[in-house]
Amino acid sequence: MPNESQSADPGSIVFVHGFTGHPDRTWTQKRGDAQNASDYGDEETADPPSKFRKFNPFSNYRRERDSSSTPVYWPRDLLPKTIPYARVLTHGYDTHLRHVLGSPLNRATVYDIAWDFLVALEAERRQEPSRPILFVAHSLGGIIVKEMLRRANGCQSYQRHLHNVFNSTIGIVFFGTPHGGADPRGFLRHIAETLIRAAGFSVNDQIVNTLLPSAERLRELRDEFGPIAHEQNWMIHSFQEELGIRYLNGRKHIGRNHMDMCRFTGFDDIEYKKVVAVLDRMATMASRKLNTTKTNSLNDDQRRTLIESLRFEQMDARQMSVKTSHPRTCRWFLKRPEYLDWLNMKKMDQHHGFLWIKGKPGTGKSTLMKFALANSWKTMKDQLIISFFFNARGASLEKSTTGMYRSLLLQLLERLPELQSIFESLGFTFRKSSSNHIWTIELLKDLFERAVQLLGQASVMCFIDALDECDEDQIRDMVAFFQRLGDFAIPSDVRFRVLFTSRHYPHITITKGLSLVLEGQEGHTQDITTYVNSELKINTISLAEQEQIRRELQEKSSGVFMWVVLVVSILNKEHDQGRTAKRLRRKLSEIPGDLHELFHDLLTRDCHNQNELLLCIQWVLFAREPLKPEQLYFAVLSGTEPDDLSKWNPDEISMGLIKTYILNSSKGLAEVTKSKTPTVQFIHESVRDFLLKENGLRAVWTHLGGKLLGECHERLAHCCLTYISADSNFDIESPLPKGLSEEATAVRRLVGTSFPFLEYAVQNILHHAETADIGGVNQKDFILNFPLTNWLKLHNVFGKFDIRRHTSEASLLYILAEYNMPALIKALPYNRSCFEVENERYGPPILAGLAMQNFEAVRAMLEVQAVAQTPTSALRGLVKYCEHIDRDNPFGREFKFSQQRSVLSHAAEYGSESLTAACLLVSIEDVDAKDNYGQTPLSWAAKKGHEAVVKILLATKQVDVNARDDNGWTPLSRAAANGSKAVVKVLLAIGQVDVDAKDNHGQTPLGWAAKKGHTAIIKALLATGQADINAKDNIRRTPLSWAAEKGYEAVVKALLATGQVDVDARDNNGRTPLSWAVGYGREAVVKVLLATGQVDVDAKDKQGRTPLSRAVSTRRKTIVRLLQSAQ
Predict the structure, then answer these.
(1) Which of 91, 342, 671, 677 has the fewest CB atoms within 10 Å, i.e. is most exposed?
(2) Do residues 536 and 477 both lie within one domain?
(3) Cα–Cα distance between 823 and 731 in angstroms, integer?
(4) Do 385 and 493 reside in the same domain of the chain?
């Protein structure tokens, strides 16, 4: 009868017919029981079409009815009442193996059909992508389902929306599926194929050949699917026909032939009851999964938090800092054929939505992009416009595709809120830390791809500027990804267009797209003319002379707009100083025509304030992050006028004064951005290219030696040191308030406002010193004089999280290890061991380095430690082994050192072979020292199953293999309980272990292994001949009693096989192993115990209850019959 108790949503049940089958007829019994049919009224409709049927709920289907018989279409007529809340779907497809002559034959392979099935199913589930799925497949349709799921599993790294089908699957019911393959033509292959062809039929050999048992790909599917299903914990049930048709064989489960095995007459059909019992179990599991998914779905606040975590500071900085195009310039671009074709939807198949503008450095590509973007905003109100401008002078996210994807995705989700469902479609769950979500490239690409796929009728225009200002490998990956989106957009009728700008190098080929080279364009040349005519202010000379100078200027520019802007400024300044036309022409002739040569000229034109100029350039070049104007002002002042350092008074040193100072200090090559949080950057990326790539820094300042990078960073480190050491005139209360408290925030704000450069100086002084040492400038003196106490105090002030603060006793070695400064570690005089425990988060410096994954620092510390050893010391050999310590590092940032335990104890717990060996070699700790729980390093290693570490500790011959912790556990007990067979064997092999040692609860290693179900360990312990198989714990339970209760059949058999077990041993409650097995419904164990013939089935416990009475009271009918038959 229908299961009316089920009220939870069991998800979707998807029916897939076999080859030559039909989405309706395969599941329809022509002569059903009228009383079992559903009452759907008297309306008549034709059968649904048989080919390429789309997914549709069965509730929309109606069937024919007549007075003589009632066909039963059980997915519609029976299943909705049996599992009332399920959504039932069917999938129809054309795999007819034979078509009448003249009809087109479908040449799709099984794998094409499976892929189409996956795509169609995903599209049908798009509104509820996490809804659980059950599949019901007949015959060779089961192969389609398996292949589809295998393909869905392969979409984990890309097209994750398709992978959701795989993740949502709960189980599969197969009807007569030949998993090893079959010839779907059956006896036709052997009897009548020739006659069939002669009669005007065509045969789809592509499907036939892929389904033969000999097909290689089918064998691969068979081998792969089993492990996948097991790993996913899918419920799999196979029904085979009992009344076999000749030439078709299989196991006998359903009392029907192959064609009728999935057709049922009604609710009382005995075969239907078999099937629905399976589906009901699966549906229950689906309901649980769906409820879990709903519990984990995101609410509006959580979505907003996730979306906000995509935002980052300076996201729009570059776009805002790009100068707006001069009036009447750039308009030519709107009439270019390339741009018009890019906008033309009818030509999308020709260019796939791509237009790429390329030009030399300084030609004005970013200005043109900003103009095109602004024009689109103004004139294309129906378009969804998103943009990103790469910025090589900015922070890391400004010059990476991670930042680009975050920005573009944020713009999409804010402007089309309905797209925010992509988080659920990719299985997102919310964590409290989601506000600081770590966005990986692959995850961002998956989300962006999913958002584009869900655009529907929306049209998106994407503007991405300055690709050359990002890492080349990242850009190549991004371009390939966007091409895939373009390939998807065309057949899907998604309107998605992308406009790129970049230099000519690096060259990246795209298969389809439009391109435009900026230099040489008539409109671009006219833009330069327009700019010169407007901005060159030389009105006091004759018109003829003005025209001649303008013409010479434009000819010399070679189309480089940046050069024109700089030269116009120079000529205007000369003119304002009263220079004649002749002098202006001479000045123009003296100005280099090459942009880089012009930069050199600007930097060397006069010798005023060269020290200030160099330091300003060095800070803009080598600062770890872009500096704010006030930060740069005090950074330069620290190196040029340290006596002038004081608390910042904005009334005295205004922002206007600071900007003027930066302009003059940089000779006009640096500017302040116009972003929300202004920073200082070069006026163009070509300035950085000149200084570094073209060696301009050394060409201008010839005194900089061969260690240019090291010398520059050393100077910056000393600037930081000077600012930190300056008289601050402010008191820091002790102890500090909690990092996230309002008081701490107020302190940081006050200090940051009063001393703008202090936070940067504190957080980056060691970085600059480290880079200087790497660059060949020894930092030994710097390290010796480092103001550690003051630095720690200031560092804690700026620390927002208490856990990242340090005590006032932290050593410099610990700090260098935590922040990965290997060069400075080697420069530090050796006066303490890296294994020496400190009162810090990670304990000793060595663990600070490992926890922070700072392997270079770890290797440096071990090298320094080894130098202090004798030349033959084993530690020196270990250092070479530790070159690959990153492969043997179980520690992470979440690690917390316990001051009640030794370094060796932690190394043993985490299974670090190299750290364990290092601890033993430096001999700083007792190998057998117990922690606050009484556990030794050997106990920890055994407990965690670290075989190699156990061997290392045993090799010292200084450990007590039977040492008991505060709970009385020995290392063997720990290993046995936790299922470490390898460790148990190692301990047993030394021959000194107390195999029967009891803990505080009276449990032996054998008892623990039995209780946890570790059969292999049971056998190993029994093989010693020293284990008491009937040992009783404090409540008098034996290993067999525990194994029986837990239902470990293999353990029970292993114990019984010894012939020495007391099968009827009673515990403190008078219960026997049989009583425990019955009480927990362990049917298999009951059978094994009864088979011994040694159990008393009528044994009463202290409550007077027998195994039979327990079975009856818990309604375990099968066990009742077993016990009754044994009486």
Answers:
(1) 677
(2) no
(3) 34
(4) yes
Question: What average pLDDT does the structure give for the chain?
Answer: 85
CA 286, 291, 295, 299 torsion: positive or negative?
Answer: positive
DSSP letter for 973, please: H
Cα–Cα distance for residue pair 618/711, rounded to 1 Å: 10
The pLDDT confidence band at residue 506, using thresholds 50, 70 and 90, is confident
Straight-line distance from the first to the last Cα atom of the chain, in angstroms, rounded to the nearest whole number: 36
Extract the tokens encoding 416.
């089309």
Range of the domain at 1110: 1029-1127
Q: Quick one: how far is CA 578 from the chain centroid?
A: 64
Tell me if 446 is assigned to some domain.
yes
Same domain, 449 and 547: no
Query: Do 476 and 534 share a domain, yes or no?
Result: no
In whole angstroms, how far apart are CA 629 and each of 626, 640, 685, 749? 9, 17, 19, 17
- In terms of domains, do 226 and 322 share one? no
Q: Are residues 278 and 265 in the same domain?
A: yes
Question: Quick check: is 833 in a domain?
Answer: no
Residue 865 resides in a domain: no
The tally of domains found in the chain comes to: 4
Asked whether residue 247 carries a pLDDT value surpassing 60, the answer given is no
Calpha distance 98→22 (Å, rounded): 15
Which residue(s) pair with 133 in the sheet?
A: 12, 169
Distance, CA of 996 to CA of 1033 (rounded, Å): 11
111 plus 251 within the same structural domain: yes
The tokens of 768 are what? 């600059």
Distinct helix (H) and strand (E) counts, the chain: 53, 16
CATH number of the domain that residue 101 is part of: 3.40.50
Whether 189 shows a pLDDT value over 60: the answer reads no
On the 0-12 / 13-18 / 19+ scale of CB atoms within 10 A, 640 is middle
My answer on whether 264 and 342 are in the same domain is no
Concatenated DSSP letters of 67-108: SS-EEEEHHHHTHHHHSTTPEEEEE-----SEEETTSPPP--
